[in-house]
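Possible regression after last week's pipeline update?

I re-ran a chain I had predicted before the update to compare outputs. Posting the input and the new output here so someone can diff against the archived version. Not blocking, just want to make sure nothing changed silently.
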Amino acid sequence: MTGQDFIDTSKPHPARVYDWLLGGKDNYPVDEEMAQQLLAIDSRGPDMARVNRAFMHRATRWLGSAAGIRQFLDIGTGIPTEPNLHQIAQEVAPESRIVYTDNDPIVLRHAEALLRSTPEGVTEYVQADVREPESIIEEAGKILDLGKPVALSLVALLHFISDEDGAYELVRRLLDPLPSGSYLVLSHVTGDFDRGSADKARELYKQRGLTLAPRSREEFAKFFKGLELVEPGVSLAADWRPELGEVVPVPGDEPVPGYAGVARKL
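New output (post-update):
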């Protein structure tokens, strides 16, 4: 594990806001304040968080079973919730190896929970920022065999990186060192169904010195360029392979505004 154990409580952090929306306790008043402001814009914030988490569970289960993946690189891990990615992966295949990465030092404090691996497998945590892809790959390569397929997971992360900051390039730089047969797992907030709320949320993040970049379905699909999308392709996160279980019931008729997809590197 690397990085400085310093937590800045003067401004909200997306991982801690997400934790609050999921009902967690590892957040600060500044995070709760922002979460409440987001709920004033769209009251379905907790639904969005739960739907996204359930997608991650289903995607991990599919990768371990149907795709036979035994190595996972999860970037933007966030504060641990039960079950976490490694628990699902190692439930399918106990020998699975998982590397978690996040840039929030509070996640480092919870690394002990993240590192509870099966005896047959490996689970490690690296503190790093997605904007340093080469460093992440270098550290991950000490734990994973990068000559064999890896599932690269960036769940609910890329909407915090703007086009100007090179979101699409970052994904390529992370994927390029991985071999054929690897997978990319993404989920992403969209403004396709309520542009007004998305614009208000973006402005709220900007006021806090943070980035929020909701993308359209077409913009989200661009992350998978050159890859082979797994059925059903790009879909609402709630609609991605519901037969795998853990579907979150959401009240109302409006779709939860988030896309998801899993694709194979050829």
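Follow-up from reviewer: compared with the archived run. The domain at 14-240+254-265 is CATH 3.40.50.150 (Rossmann fold). Marking as no regression found.
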